[in-house]
Amino acid sequence: MMSDVGFWIAGLLIGAGVALAALTGRGYFDDALDWLERDVTEKLRRMRKTTRHVRRWLFAWLVVVACVFLGFLILGHSLIFAVLFAALLACGPWYLLRRMAERHRRRIEDQLADAMVALANAVRAGLSLAQSMEILASQCPKPINAEFHQIVAEYKLGKPLDRTLTEAKERLHSENFALFAAALLASHESGGRLNETVERIAQSVLELQRLERKVASETAQARKSAIYMAMAPALILVVYYFVDPENTTLLFTTTVGHVLLAFSVLLNVIAYLWARVILTPDI
């Protein structure tokens, strides 16, 4: 009985401390929330998703994280698990969104070389730059065709071509597209043989893609091994529960067990992310 009362007092003190910290550090909290909103909005725009009510969804996300924290703290009687799972829940969706945006960028990178070759052929056939861009918008596959559709639509509405290309370059964060946009802008401003320049850039992009695919194929087995190694501790814990259930249960019922499990999860996540960084070289 006394332990339960002490636990509730500790929970109330922690809640009061969090509330006091939120009040005194409201400015820092608003700055962090503004940065997070900008980052999420930028990733959604890159994937051409709606960015309406982003701040409202962020508040809902924080409420869910707070509920998970209180749930583990009150029902699970574990401050360590409450902090751990709240942190994982707070960082997980943001990490997945970054992965999705990066995958979208890579798909555009893979389609960009073919788009450059198509543009060079259209210019060689005598079409203007605007007409060639319209052909790319109508014939290129998704998702890169949406970018050309937006460039052509904004250009037809009267926005200067250099501004539309600059905005697309900032939106995509693609080095290859930056080269492509620079070639288009140079040709648009000073003239020159655009088709030859674009073809040379396309050949360079194709060579880089060949090297990236070679590295990806060489490290595919290692990436799968990293996933299996990240899953292995949970499977081993299940096996140990059937072998020695009494001692395994202590990991979930004692403070020392909570600390050991929390450190295990934390180190496992760090090891997996570290392996991904090592196995995804930047060419």
Task: Describe, in plain words, how this protein is organized in 3D.
By secondary structure, the protein is mainly α. Among the domains are: 105-214, Receptor-associated Protein, CATH 1.20.81.30; 219-283. Helices cover 87% and strands 0% of the residues. The chain has 12 helices and no strands. It has helices at residues 2-24, 26-46, 54-74, 79-124, 129-139, 144-156, 161-172, 175-190, 194-218, 220-243, 245-253, 255-278. It is elongated and about 80 Å long.
Helices, strands, pairings?
Layout: H1 2-24, H2 26-46, H3 54-74, H4 79-124, H5 129-139, H6 144-156, H7 161-172, H8 175-190, H9 194-218, H10 220-243, H11 245-253, H12 255-278
State the gist of this model.
The chain is mostly helical and 283 residues long. It has helices at residues 2-24, 26-46, 54-74, 79-124, 129-139, 144-156, 161-172, 175-190, 194-218, 220-243, 245-253, 255-278.
Principal-axis shape: elongated
Total number of β-strand segments? 0
Helix content: over 70%
Described by its quaternary structure, the protein is single chain
What is the mean pLDDT?
Answer: 81
- The radius of gyration over CA amounts to 26 Å
- CATH top level of the domain at 105-214 is Mainly Alpha
Order of helices and strands: HHHHHHHHHHHH
**Uncertain ranges:** none
Ends apart, CA distance between termini: 62 Å
CATH topology grouping of the domain at 105-214: Receptor-associated Protein
Main structural class: mainly alpha
Approximate strand percentage: under 5%
CATH level-two architecture of the domain at 105-214: Up-down Bundle
Count the helices. How many? 12
**Largest sheet, strands/sense/barrel:** none
Query: What is the CATH homologous superfamily assignment of the domain at 105-214?
Result: Type II secretion system (T2SS), domain F
